[in-house]
Amino acid sequence: MSICICHPLPYLADPADYFALVRHAPGAVLLDSGRPTAERGRYDLLSAWPMAQLTAADGEAANVFFQRLRDALSLLGPSEAPADQPLPFVGGLIGYLSYDFGRRLELMPNSAVDDLALPDAHFGLYAWALISDHQLQRSQLVFHPRLDEAERQRLIRLFSQPAVAREGAPFRLAAPFQADISAATYEAAIHRIQAYIQAGDCYQVNFAQRFRAACSGDAWHAYRALRAACPTPFAGFLQLSDASILSLSPERFLRVHDNQVETRPIKGTRPRDASPEEDRRQADALLASPKDRAENLMIVDLLRNDLGRSCRIGSVRVPELFALESYPNVHHLVSSVTGELDANKDALDLLAGSFPGGSITGAPKVRAMQIIDELEPTRRGLYCGSLLYLDVRGEMDSSIAIRSLLVKDGQVACWGGGGIVMDSEWQAEYQESLTKVRVLMETLEAL
């Protein structure tokens, strides 16, 4: 088996200086654990100059696109990490699936307008990465054996030089963010969802609203400001040919490591408070809330079913239920579902059976997605999709792209939403949708 080649670099807890060296390169991508402030993520991973770029074509079925991804990994060829080097990635695919890729997996209506025109999926095939391991405090270049010696030496020289600030024009908004729908429209949508629940169509629907603002300047400048304000363990920055993806997500979707599968759904939110006593009261209220626990449990059951499609029979477990995770702006209720990948399945089979994540659809999933399409006037695009890597060994990690923004065509868009159940109060849900993205909007409005 071919072993990847590693070249040590000075350890940096914040990947910004290293990423600045490739920020303007084709296919520049950063998967960011939010260190040193965020503490749950172990690795940062960045790369650029992909060997190939794969975009889901109009009308291309999900299984056909996923087979193209498998073929790309086969083209790159096998590789392993050195025996003494725990590495999350040794060469492979990095990119995103938009929420609307789910239309290629399930039968869906086409009511929501696609006004952002973001491809449903896009991946680069990367033969190298710069990986920082925050547990071992080690940064290094990792080269797939197929990458030629001249390119390896070029990258070593590039990352051995002092980082120089290469940001473009400062990021600015032309005006504050505005919601696409009114509070009255939001209220009507919640009542419609509750009518569907009462009629027996569903148990829970995740409803979201979109906020937009005209903007100019360098999206990387915006990402740096957002990262400082809201560090999270599943953040990321992707530079596309005509758009930038900025994600400050706290939520893991699916991880595959040594054929072991984990998903960590978030369902249940309370705002943080400057007063330690009030902040603790908010956290305790979330932990004790029958409504939030019921919502979380519904999604745990949904995900147990989704993982069961691709995991060995009897291997699916729930090792963690209703845990508290706290971030700069919110407390979250989080659970964990695990399993062992079936011998006849791979990570792409797991994605096909589980995407999009149940925590951002509702239950049952397909009916909830149909209701979302009916009531949300525009397609979600990136929001509630997934940023992910999948390497040639079959190792994968992925986020749910909440707390995420799209900069495209002179505007920036972000979304806030939450799970709606029968006893939801629309005013409280409306405020929760604002709470989740307020720190993002206020940070950019202050630039």
Automatic annotation (TrEMBL):
In this chain the Chorismate-utilising enzyme C-terminal domain maps to 184-436
Q: Which InterPro entries match?
A: ADC_synth_comp_1, ADC_synthase, Anth_synth_I-like, Anth_synth_I_N, Chorismate_C
If you read the UniProt record, what top EC class would you report for this enzyme, in one word? transferase
Which Enzyme Commission number(s) are listed?
2.6.1.85
Give a yes or no for keyword Hydrolase in this entry.
no
Q: Which first-to-last residue range defines the signal peptide?
A: none
Annotated segments matching region Disordered: 261-281
**Gene3D superfamilies noted in UniProt:** Anthranilate synthase (3.60.120.10)
Please report the stretch or stretches of sequence annotated as the Anthranilate synthase component I N-terminal domain.
Answer: 13-138
Q: Which UniProt keywords apply?
A: Aminotransferase, Transferase
User: Which GO terms of the molecular function aspect are on file?
Assistant: 4-amino-4-deoxychorismate synthase activity
Query: What Pfam families does this protein map onto?
Result: Anth_synt_I_N, Chorismate_bind
Q: What is this protein called?
A: aminodeoxychorismate synthase
Organism (species)? Serpens gallinarum
Q: What gene codes for this chain?
A: pabB
